[in-house]
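ok so I'm stuck.
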Amino acid sequence: MVAYAGRPRQTNRTCTVIGIVLLAVFGSILLCNIVLIVRSFIHPDKVADVFGFKPFVVVSGSMEDTILIDDLILVRACQPDTLTVGYGTGDIVSFRSGHTVVTHRLVGKTSVDGAPAFITKGDANNTADIDPVTYDMIEGQYLLRIPKLGGLSLFMQTPMGLLVFLILPVLAFFLYDIIHRRHIVRQYERDANHENRT
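replied:
not stuck anymore, here's the structure
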């Protein structure tokens, strides 16, 4: 009887750990989204960051095959004078271009009104970008990409995406926790009744 009762408890512990991990993951995503949204409202003229990292969703194929459409990329603040340039070997940066942010490779150096600037180019493009990129336009240096997470990230920012990927899992976890606690209470009551009978 004791050996049999141990298995459900072990299963319950495993489910609890999985539930806590899922809650931590979804909670982190929710927290990051809230931080990005709040900072975007407070500073509409700046790209919002989370702990110094800025996420961007790729919507064009100008950097294929290095970065693909619908990828989510992360960049972080950098010192422009430490960046390297070169065709196929230069650092990749994200920079403001009008009302959008572009992520291209640094392929050369130039100057604008006496101030240092970079020449940029998309890996998949035949020619370099027309407008040079000054230091103050750079949002950060490319760190990594998460394949296809960009499209999912955009969906998560919609009301339906927020409901499906964040609110429902959190509610499901709390519902599971309530059911799990009731199950534990019943298990202890059964064990107590069994001990009283013996």
